[in-house]
Structure to design on (472 residues):
């Protein structure tokens, strides 16, 4: 992960290598929240059918249990910015770590379907907090020349969390003899899958004690000297830190009063820049990316793939996700955020369109015809690759950078909350849409991928290489 952060963007200031290593550690530690975000979001993929069987529920109820965590995500995202502005970024991370831990234990030991849903909501609240605090904190401690690549650590951690969850699920499934409800450590295998998250949750909490508070938060509460020491740690010694503190202080005068009211204005309730952030969040989800991570095993089984292979395809998709994310980390500060978003949109249209075509054919003996089956499988991986090398990374980087200082925390919270609501809409609707028409469902996702192209061209401004204080 660190190897992509050594070449500075041309024309931007740089941090000396000794300080850069420390910044990389800080960003990686903060991105553990992203790892838990990815792990907790996708670990349920391995438990879906077991939960359906144990509690004897239909697709509609099951979809709500899977999707209900996203309501917690939306609430956590909406409130995290205010919490972080009041008690600090690090304390916010520690609260999220505790909630992740409690959720993992509760989800592994549910009494009934209703309390499993409750523990998932608590985990969702933690995910929502991590989704906001991670990119905001990393943006605030990163030197401008490296901020894009360090900001992409959040998405890298998310996709690694997804892959690790699928690998752990596969290992536990084999240990239980291939039965999601097989006995393992005195529990059913799916319960152990959900409980294993205790390990990274505790690690996240411990790492939060090893990294410094954001200098911008410290300045906002009057701790100038401590902020200067941290700025020296992350930006090197060849900087006038009194001038830097004064610059940040000036930029943050109104941020201390940042509230939901500050986002209001313009012709349509919110300021235009807030709507652009919401638009980025909604498009990121409406292409259907999380169907690939919440329902991939069920999806492949529905077109005739056997369960063992469906778990394998879930894992290979997550590996492609990591590869695409690494590509984005290499290029996000070199060619910029906006070009990557456009390249990704074009690739997603192709991948989703081919999936829609393949799924339009009738099943033969419970399976897609051979040609269409291979097209669907390859197109699914193409779609995930282009999403990962573009929208998966650049949306989080944009949301950490694009808002003016005076509204950043509140605007980021609203945009991230919109992302979770959009995610919920896709997750809750997919089973019913797939029952209606699987091909038609993918046509809808293709249309949103296509619409993202004019949206980016018309409304999104490049943020590459700009200091946060320059965003106006």
């Amino acid at each position: 992960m660190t190897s992509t952060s050594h070449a500075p963007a041309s024309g931007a200031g740089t941090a000396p290598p000794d300080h850069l290593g420390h910044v990389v550690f800080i960003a990686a530690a903060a991105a553990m929240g992203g790892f838990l975000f990815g792990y907790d979001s996708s670990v349920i993929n391995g438990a879906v059918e077991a939960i359906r069987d144990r509690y004897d529920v239909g697709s509609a109820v099951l979809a709500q249990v899977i999707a209900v965590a996203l309501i917690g995500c939306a609430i956590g995202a909406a409130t995290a910015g205010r919490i972080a502005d009041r008690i600090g970024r690090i304390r916010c991370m520690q609260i999220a770590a505790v909630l992740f831990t409690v959720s993992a234990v509760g989800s592994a030991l549910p009494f009934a379907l209703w309390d499993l849903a409750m523990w998932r909501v608590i985990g969702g609240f933690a995910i929502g907090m991590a989704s906001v605090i991670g990119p905001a904190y990393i943006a605030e401690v990163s030197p401008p020349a490296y901020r894009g690549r360090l900001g992409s650590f959040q998405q890298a951690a998310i996709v690694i969390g997804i892959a690790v969850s699928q690998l752990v699920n596969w290992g536990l499934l084999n240990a239980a003899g291939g039965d999601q409800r097989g006995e393992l450590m005195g529990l059913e295998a799916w319960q152990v899958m959900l409980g294993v998250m205790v390990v990274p949750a505790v690690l996240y909490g411990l790492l939060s004690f090893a990294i410094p508070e954001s200098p911008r938060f410290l300045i906002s509460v009057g701790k100038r000297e401590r902020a200067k020491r941290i700025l020296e740690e992350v930006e090197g010694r060849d900087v006038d830190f009194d001038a830097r503190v004064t610059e940040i202080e000036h930029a943050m005068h109104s941020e201390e009063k940042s509230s939901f009211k500050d986002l209001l204005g313009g012709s349509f309730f919110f300021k235009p820049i807030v709507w652009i952030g919401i638009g980025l969040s909604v498009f990121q989800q409406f292409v259907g990316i999380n169907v690939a991570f919440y329902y991939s095993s069920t999806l492949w089984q529905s077109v005739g793939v056997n369960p063992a292979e469906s778990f394998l395809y879930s894992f290979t998709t997550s590996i492609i996700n990591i590869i695409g994310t690494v590509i984005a980390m290499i290029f996000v500060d070199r060619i910029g955020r906006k070009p990557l978003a456009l390249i990704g949109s074009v690739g997603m249209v192709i991948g989703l369109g081919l999936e829609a075509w393949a799924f339009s054919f009738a099943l033969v003996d419970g399976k897609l015809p051979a040609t269409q089956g291979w097209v669907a499988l390859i197109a699914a991986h193409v779609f995930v690759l282009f999403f990962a090398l573009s929208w998966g990374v650049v949306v989080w980087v944009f949301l950490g950078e694009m808002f003016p200082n005076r509204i950043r925390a509140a605007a980021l919270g609203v945009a991230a909350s919109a992302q979770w609501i959009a995610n919920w809409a896709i997750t809750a609707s997919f089973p019913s849409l797939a029952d209606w028409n699987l091909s038609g469902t993918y046509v809808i996702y293709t249309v949103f991928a296509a619409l993202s192209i004019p949206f980016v061209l018309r409304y999104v401004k490049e943020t590459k290489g700009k200091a946060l204080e320059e965003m106006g």
Notes: DSSP finds 21 helices and three strands in the chain. The two ends are 31 Å apart (CA to CA). The chain has one domain: 17-211+253-470. The longest strand covers residues 264-268.
